[in-house]
């Protein structure tokens, strides 16, 4: 794309500039394989304007493929480390949640209805709901629920030992009722009462 943009700025034909770029790329040895793409494809060097001696060494296909695989593994490890990628531990029999589309601001990333993973084939997982319907998605669309959360969410049976006895409120007897009415409350007796006075300007004579 840069070649096409530079050709348009210089007022040249972009097709001619593209052919020049492809010729230079096909004649340049690759850093991974050590050979030019033209030699790997046609088993001979391309004819260029630069004089050079003919090479009779043929590239070893197994060695080239091995170096190519090693370079791809290095790039994959670097990309996984940069993006903090890790393997999804979802296996058959796990309780999972499936990702759902976001409809509004209140919708959750995952469907709250749990599913059971029934089958895993490569990166595809088939999970089953409680009503018997099945969902097949990529492993990245599922989130495994830890076993401790499943155990905590199960309803526990209420036993008589766990229930605390309720204290019965005693109804006041007639004698106690008289005592409570005759004795003044401590809060009202100890509270200081404010004295209200009329303003001075009203008492003064004009």
SSE map:
Layout: H1 2-10, H2 14-26, H3 37-42, H4 61-82, E1 95-98, E2 115-121, E3 124-128, E4 134-138, E5 142-144, H5 147-153, H6 174-182, H7 186-190, H8 200-203
Antiparallel strand pairs: 1-2, 1-5, 2-3, 3-4
Helix pairs in contact: 1-2
What report would you give on this structure?
This protein has helices spanning 2-10, 14-26, 37-42, 61-82, 147-153, 174-182, 186-190, 200-203; strands at residues 95-98, 115-121, 124-128, 134-138, 142-144. Helix content is 36%, strand content 12%. The protein is an alpha+beta fold. Among the domains are: 2-82, no CATH class; 95-152, SH3 type barrels (Roll), CATH 2.30.30. It is built from eight helices and five strands; from the N terminus they run ααααβββββαααα. A five-stranded antiparallel beta sheet has the order 4-3-2-1-5, with no helix packed on it.
Rg from alpha-carbon coordinates:
42 Å
How far is the N terminus from the C terminus?
A: 99 Å
Beta-strand percentage range: 5-15%
Order of helices and strands: HHHHEEEEEHHHH
- Main sheet? 5 strands, antiparallel
Shape: elongated
Query: Helix share of residues?
Result: 25-40%
Structural class: alpha+beta
Write out key terms for the chains shown.
36% helix; five-stranded antiparallel beta sheet; 5 strands; 206 residues; SH3 type barrels; 8 helices; elongated; alpha+beta
Quick take:
The chain has 206 residues and is an alpha+beta fold.
């Amino acid at each position: 794309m840069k070649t096409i943009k530079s050709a348009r700025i210089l007022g040249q034909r972009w097709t001619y500039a593209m052919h020049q770029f492809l010729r230079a790329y096909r004649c340049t040895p690759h850093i991974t394989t050590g050979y030019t793409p033209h030699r790997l494809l046609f088993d001979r060097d391309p004819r260029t304007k630069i004089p050079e001696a003919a090479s009779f060494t043929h590239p070893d296909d197994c060695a080239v493929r091995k170096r190519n695989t090693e370079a791809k593994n290095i790039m994959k490890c670097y990309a996984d480390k940069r993006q903090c990628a890790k393997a999804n531990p979802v296996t058959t029999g796990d309780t999972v949640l499936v990702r759902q589309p976001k409809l509004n601001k209140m919708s959750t990333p995952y469907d709250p209805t749990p599913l059971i993973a029934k089958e895993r084939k490569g990166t595809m997982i088939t999970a089953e709901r409680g009503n018997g319907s099945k969902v097949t998605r990529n492993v990245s669309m599922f989130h495994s629920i830890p076993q401790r959360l499943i155990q905590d969410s199960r309803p526990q049976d209420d036993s008589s030992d766990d229930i605390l006895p309720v204290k019965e409120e005693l109804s006041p007897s007639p004698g106690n009722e008289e005592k409570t009415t005759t004795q003044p409350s401590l809060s009202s007796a100890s509270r200081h009462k404010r004295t209200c006075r009329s303003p001075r300007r009203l008492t003064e004579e004009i």
